[in-house]
Structures are given as structure tokens and as C-alpha cells.
Automatic annotation (TrEMBL):
Keywords: Membrane, Transmembrane, Transmembrane helix. This is MFS family permease. The chain crosses the membrane at residues 9-30, 42-62, 69-88, 94-119, 131-150, 156-180, 212-237, 243-263, 272-290, 361-380. SUPFAM superfamilies: MFS general substrate transporter. InterPro entries: MFS_trans_sf (IPR036259). It comes from Paenibacillus eucommiae.
Length: 406
């Protein structure tokens, strides 16, 4: 793994602590007040809307500034969110959730574009799998420790104390941003290229393989948001005790260590791991049809392990696909890829807002739609793989050769 990737991992670890805290305890903070699925869904809707806008804005900024500046913007956005959580109090709950969600989404959007540009411009081949596997391992360690420590801080000092601690970590994130690789798109554009081309659809998906990224990203965004939202809400429905919630998240994390061991023990192709991931995710979703606590816990374990395999394989396949393009072409695809994910996440959240409980026709229909979309990802990735192999038809026995090319 190149040194730039190792330094990026340090930044990733620092930022992930903040992300994990927000993902669990800010959502719990919103859920506790009225216990409405719609409140949590609206917070996440605003978050991902801001995510897509800031990701695109970050791409334009990188045409003039380095990723250090964009990482700094991410830290400033995070700081703004925790300051408002600490001191902003409004009678209009809808407006309050909106104002909190905006800087959280900006933090994630700016961070995502800076990380993705670093990966796409500096990585190649197996380095992508190595990075995502290492990032996944660090993430699992933090997923096990951060919730437990955060729960204790909230128990001793309340939410206000935990928000203050997060402000300290945001300051550390801002300091670390000065030590990441100084990379930008400036000087990497070809003659006649302009950053405004980022927004031109026809210049983005210009190969047959890249066109299949469109439905793949839309499908992935929909199911990722369903899994992320309901894994949280299922956990919250079991208990509102912070320590119990932290212990359950630790259980989910421990289960992924076994998954990581298997991932490293068996040298399978990304396509094989993607198949395994989707099978585990669908099985986990089916268990939610009978929403009792033991089955909800088992469902979360299966979908969390499936999500680990999915992230390692699906992301690696995409980054390999675009790694041979020019800097601006990679930026084109990454911007649209992130926006497609954000759009489908938002679409899923809009469907969730009317749902009142984890049963009934509305929930079951959404679950069935999500499972259908999950399975469709296999088809989209297969078509992208065949397109990368060349215009000629590929014999059935040559699948291994196609995957080696990827």
C-alpha cells in the first residue's frame, strides 16, 4: 500500500470516530425525543441531500485547491454541527432537524470527495482491495470501541458532554488534515478540459462498462440506506439504554471480525464476495418479517457482515474500472457516482417517512422492493464486467479471466 494511502488511513480513522458517533448517538438523540421513524428519516434525508451538493462542490474546489483544504472544510462543517447540537434550541422540530442535518451532510460530502480523489489518482490494481480491507478492519475496531466509550461519556456527562468531546476530536481532525497528501486536480487536466465538464452527463459515462455504473449506484444507494437506517431503528426498538445499544453494536462488530478473517483466508474474486454479500443481506432482511428482539439482532448481524463483504468488493470493482481514466474523467465518474447514491438514498428515505412501525403492508412492500433491488446489483455488475472484457462475446468458461482483468 503506498504511503499516501497509509496517511489517508490515519485521516480516515480520525474522521470515522466522529462518523460512528453521529451515526449512532445523534440519530438516537433525535429518536429519543418522540420515537418517530419520520424524524430519523428526515434527518438522514437532509444529510444525504447536503452530502451530494457538498461532494459536487468539493470537486470544483479541488480544481483550484488541494484535498487538505477540502478535508479542512469537512472538519469545520462537523464543528458547526456539534456547536448547534450543543446550543441551538428551536420550538419548530422540523426546522431544527433540518438545520442539524445540513452541516453533518456537508462534513461527509467534503470528506468523501477528498478521499475518493486521493484513491482514484494514486491507486491501482490490488491496492484498492488492500485499502478498503484495511479501512474496513480499522472501522470494525472503532465500531467496537467508540460506541462503548461514547455511551459511558453520555452516562457520566450527558449529551452536552459528549458533544464537547466531539468538538475536541473535530479539532484533531482539522490538524490531521494538514498532513494528508497535498493532491488536487490542478495541473492534472488535459488540454481543453474544464472542471465544469464534471456536470456534463454525456462526458461522464462514455464507455459501455461505465454506463452500467448508473443502475448499480442507484440500486446500491437504495439498499445501503435501508440497511443503515433500519439496523439503527431495530437496535433502538430493542432498548434505549445507551450501554445496551453500544453492546449490541459491539456484537455486530465482533461478527465482522470473523467475516474479515474469512475474507483474508480465502482468496476469492470480488464477484464471488459480492454474491456472498447479497445472499447474507437478503437473508437478514427476511428475518425482519417477524420483528422480535432475537431475530432483529440476528438480522443486524447478517446484514452487517454482508455489508462488509459488499463494501470491500463493490467499491474495489468500481475503482478498478475507472483507475485507467484521466484525472478529470475519474472526477466526472466519482461526482456522478456519489450523487446517484445520494439521490437513491433520499428516494428511499422519502418512502420511509410515512411508515409508523416495523410491520404492516407499507413496511413489507418496502422490504420486498429493497430485496429486489439488492439482487439486481448482481446483474448490473455482471454486465459491467462483460463490457470491460471487450465487445466480443465471452465464453462461459472464461469468467475467471474477466475477473482477473478487473
Amino acid at each position: 500500500m503506498p504511503s499516501s494511502f497509509r496517511r489517508l488511513l490515519i485521516m480516515n480513522a480520525t474522521t470515522m470516530i466522529i462518523f460512528i458517533y453521529i451515526g449512532i448517538f445523534v440519530n438516537l438523540y433525535i429518536w429519543e425525543q418522540q420515537r418517530l421513524i419520520s424524524d430519523v428519516a428526515w434527518f438522514n434525508f437532509v444529510l444525504f441531500l447536503a452530502w451530494g451538493v457538498s461532494f459536487t462542490a468539493g470537486a470544483k474546489i479541488l480544481a483550484r485547491m488541494s484535498i487538505r483544504f477540502v478535508f479542512g472544510l469537512s472538519a469545520i462543517s462537523a464543528g458547526s454541527a456539534f456547536l448547534m447540537l450543543s446550543y441551538l434550541h428551536l420550538d419548530n422540530r422540523f426546522l431544527w432537524i433540518t438545520i442539524i442535518g445540513l452541516p453533518v451532510g456537508m462534513m461527509w460530502g467534503f470528506y468523501a470527495i477528498a478521499q475518493n480523489i486521493t484513491l482514484s489518482l494514486n491507486g491501482k490494481g490490488k491496492e484498492f482491495s488492500q485499502y478498503f480491507a484495511a479501512a474496513g478492519f480499522i472501522g470494525q475496531v472503532l465500531n467496537m470501541t467508540v460506541p462503548l466509550m461514547s455511551a459511558q461519556v453520555i452516562r457520566l456527562f450527558g449529551y452536552s458532554g459528549s458533544f464537547t468531546l466531539m468538538l475536541v476530536l473535530v479539532t484533531l481532525m482539522f490538524i490531521v488534515s494538514f498532513f494528508v497528501p497535498k493532491i488536487s486536480l490542478k495541473g492534472k487536466m488535459l488540454a481543453g478540459e474544464s472542471v465544469t465538464d464534471i456536470f456534463r452527463w454525456r462526458k461522464v459515462f462514455f464507455t459501455e462498462a461505465s454506463k452500467w455504473l448508473i443502475p448499480s449506484c442507484l440500486a446500491a444507494g437504495f439498499f445501503l440506506q435501508f440497511q443503515g437506517l433500519f439496523a439503527l431503528l431495530f437496535t433502538f426498538s430493542i432498548s434505549l439504554d445507551k450501554l445496551v445499544i453500544a453492546l449490541l453494536n459491539t456484537l455486530y462488530t465482533v461478527s465482522t471480525f470473523a467475516a474479515l478473517y474469512i475474507y483474508r483466508r480465502y482468496n476469492k474474486s470480488e464477484t464471488t464476495w459480492l454474491n456472498i454479500a447479497i445472499a447474507l443481506i437478503c437473508l437478514g432482511f427476511l428475518l425482519t418479517l417477524y420483528p422480535v428482539s432475537p431475530l432483529l439482532v440476528l438480522s443486524n448481524i447478517l446484514t452487517t457482515v454482508g455489508l462488509f463483504y459488499f463494501s470491500a468488493s463493490w467499491n474495489a470493482l468500481h475503482f478498478r474500472m475507472i483507475s485507467e481514466f484521466s484525472a478529470l474523467q475519474q472526477t466526472h465518474i466519482l461526482v456522478w457516482r456519489e450523487n446517484l447514491l445520494a439521490v437513491s438514498r433520499c428516494a428511499m428515505l422519502l418512502l420511509v417517512i410515512p411508515i409508523k412501525e416495523f410491520r404492516g403492508v407499507s413496511f413489507w412492500l418496502l422490504l420486498a422492493l429493497t430485496m429486489l433491488i439488492v439482487v439486481s446489483i448482481l446483474y448490473f455488475q455482471k454486465r459491467a464486467t462483460l463490457a470491460m472484457a471487450g465487445p466480443s462475446s465471452v465464453p462461459a468458461g472464461d469468467k475467471a479471466g474477466i475477473e482477473a482483468k478487473l
